[in-house]
Amino acid sequence: MAIYAYGDRVPTIDPSAYIFPSADIIGKVTIGAKVFVGAGAILRGDYGEIIVGDGSAIEENVTIHARPQGTCLLGENVTVGHAAMLHTCTIHDGAVIGMKSVVSDFADVGEGAIVAEGAVVKSKTKVEPYSIVAGVPAKEIGPVNENQTDFWTEIKKIYQQLARDYPSKLRRLEEPYE
After folding, report:
1. Is the pLDDT at 178 greater than 80, yes or no?
2. Which of 16, 45, 96, 103 has its CA 20 to 30 A from that of 86?
């Protein structure tokens, strides 16, 4: 993994978090307990700040950044899907950010909300707790139901288990592969 200080801005990473070797963590980034950060993810706190709460999952190729003196805050047990982009926004506990979605400056995604795949949550948009938004720009399409909450709770547990298992189970193979 590539962990970088930027001047006096140094990442703080809980020892129980797992950061994939090809992920980049730069500057003022705080990563909580049992967090999983996947391959190719970039969390860049060079002139803003990034905070990732306990139990969250940052999947492959996610980009997280913040404006100067701004903060991108992810609560606890947040899932950020593959190739999503977050910028100076707030994502509350238990929310799900779908694959290839964008959550822009000063947007606020409520607790337990779901941002659908490919959605664009525009600047200063408020996504209500336990609602689902989809589209470009993202619009509310309904409430999160119990089955969806149960499904995402189980997915979060899987990523928390991966954060525990990857340090001992992941190994790079050299040719010939064995």
Report:
1. no
2. 16
- 11-40: per-residue pLDDT in tens? 999 999 999 999 999 999 999 999 999 999
Residue 6 is given by DSSP the state: B
pTM higher than 0.70? yes
Whether 81 is covered by a domain: the verdict is yes
Any domain includes 111: yes
Q: Are the C-beta atoms of 45 and 27 separated by less than 8 Å?
A: yes
How large is the greatest C-alpha to C-alpha distance in the chain, in angstroms? Answer: 52
In terms of Cα–Cα distance, which of 114, 119, 118 is closest to 130? 114
Count of structural domains, the chain: 1
What is the reported pLDDT for 41? 98
Q: Is 175 part of a structural domain of the chain?
A: no
* Residue 49: domain span: 2-169
